[in-house]
Amino acid sequence: MTVNFHPSKTKLLDAALQVIRAKGYSATRIEDVCAAAGVTKGSFFHHFKSKEDLALAAADYWSSTTAELFARAPYHDHADPLDRVLAYVEFRKSLLQGTVEEFTCLVGTMVQEAFATDPAIRDACDASISGHAATLEDDIAAAMTLYGVKADWTAKSLALHTQAVLQGAFILAKAKGGPAVAIDSVDHLKRYIKLLFTADSPAEPSR
């Protein structure tokens, strides 16, 4: 559900998404966010008590805005649940465009820095990443049933694994300075998921 903020607060949240992904949480200053948003520090402190308060709000804002993006995505239109999962992976691949900071994950960036020093930020990032993973569980579980998959892994564990691959792909993209390596990783993820559902499955997909 879309939340309507005061325009200056929305500008600050949008700026936080941009600046933190480009500079990292620790290196981001309140002044950087204000400059990117085109607002004063007075406006910042009208809406947020501190940089941590902004980070927590930005994690929630990231979750809500990305949730809307994925809710409208075309991968939901497939009848076969495995096709939906594979199309989700393809959709993630289609987002790997532009500069690294434009396609990498805000909460993945923040948690790498704050996991040991700021439990509130760590928990907010976990809620965002795990909450998104949970949106895949029903389709994975339905595909396991449809394809007769009996395994020692669960729909939840595979859903989280997709996020582990994606977050790792973002790290590699940062290290290499571009999306090519991340695209390769996502392609490997798609191959892996296909193997899980077809190697020993009595039902053969038509793909």
UniProtKB/TrEMBL annotation:
A Gene Ontology molecular function term of the record: DNA binding
Domain HTH tetR-type: 6-66
UniProtKB keywords: DNA-binding, Transcription, Transcription regulation
Alphabetical list of SUPFAM superfamilies matching this protein: Homeodomain-like (SSF46689), Tetracyclin repressor-like, C-terminal domain (SSF48498)
Superkingdom per UniProt: Bacteria
InterPro entries with a match to the protein in the record: Homeodomain-like_sf (IPR009057), HTH_TetR (IPR001647), Tet_transcr_reg_TetR-rel_C_sf (IPR036271), TetR_C (IPR011075)
One of the Pfam families matching this protein, by short name: TetR_N
Stored PROSITE patterns: HTH_TETR_2 (PS50977)
Protein name (database record): TetR family transcriptional regulator
Organism: Sneathiella chungangensis
